Amino acid sequence: MEVVNLRFAEVPANVIPEPTGWLSSLTVTKDDVMHWIELGVMLLLALVVLLLVVRPLIRRILETEPPPPAKDTNIAAAIAGGDVQAGGDRGRRDCARNQGCCCGRPRPRR
Fold first, then answer.
1. Residues with Cβ within 8 Å of residue 105, at least 6 apart in sequence
2. In the 3-class helix/strand/coil scheme, how is 47-94 assigned residue by residue?
3. What is the H or E stretch that residue 104 is in?
């Protein structure tokens, strides 16, 4: 058995002429399509980050907190002769009169 190195058969190259001049910018290649797909995916990721991360952070930053109750309300209630407690509520007497309690205390038993 004899091993002989042979050259592969040469195939004539069919060269497709590429447009030159201003027509060369109108052709769309595979690289152009892949670049557009890449930009589209990056745009979608940026929108997801904006909606799920940045938007809640900005909401928390811009959210206004209610002002703390003024200490003058307790003084005004004491001058008027009402019961003075934290937050200026009227005390257990009003809870006993009401059917439901609005201040968070348990309902009194009768």
1. 92, 95
2. HHHHHHHHHHHHHHHHCCCCCCCCCHHHHHHHHHCCCCCHHHCCCHHH
3. none
**Is the model's pTM score more than 0.85?**
no
70: left (phi > 0), else alpha (psi -120 to 50), else beta? beta
Angstrom distance (rounded) from CA 49 to CA 43? 10
pLDDT tens for residues 17-62?
A: 777 777 777 788 899 999 999 999 999 999 999 999 999 988 888 8
Distances (CA, A) of 74 to 26, 45, 55, 85: 78, 53, 40, 7
- Residue 74, both tokens: 């307790």
Angle at 92 between CA 88 and CA 94, to 5 degrees: 80
